[in-house]
Amino acid sequence: MDGRYWVPLIAALTGARREEIAGIKAAEIIQVDGTWCFDIKPNANRRLKNRQSERRVPIHAQLLDLGLIKYVRSMARRGATVDLFPDLKPSKATGNFGDQAYPAFANAMNDQISDVDKKSLHSFRHYIIDVINNTSVKSEYRNDLLGHLGESIGSSRYGSGTSIANLRATIDLLPRIAALEPFCQTFEAGSQS
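The structure corresponding to this sequence follows.
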């Protein structure tokens, strides 16, 4: 398993931008208050779109059950600054990690989606927004999860942001991908898997 496997799954179960995912370092998968999170911040691989894009995003339970933490730990053993998805390292100085993830995703979708314009990892962000908007979750939670600026001055300037517990509850609203269930094993936070 590599970035071409994980990036679309992470996009589908977090709504994070492809570059945020593809350029992450192994050390940026952290535990906050007992919850595994993506610690999305600028690093040597990528910048962020804006200030509010810097955030912590809880990892969906299905990603844990698919073995993401086991993969992270195997990569982290290579060193503190190792890329989580070194297979996505661009070959040109002007390329980016996200561009490396897209072709494999588009090729995998060829049989599933005939309209080439709809083959986009960014479509997962729209899907996540639709799912969350059809719940009673506060818009501030959605914005903090996706790295969006709040709609009001109060939500964007004041307070310390949404708690990890509330972000976790928001991520938990996203449905599991049924086709992946046969590959899942129940993840236990203290386990070595």
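The CA atoms of residues 141 and 165 lie 11 Å apart.
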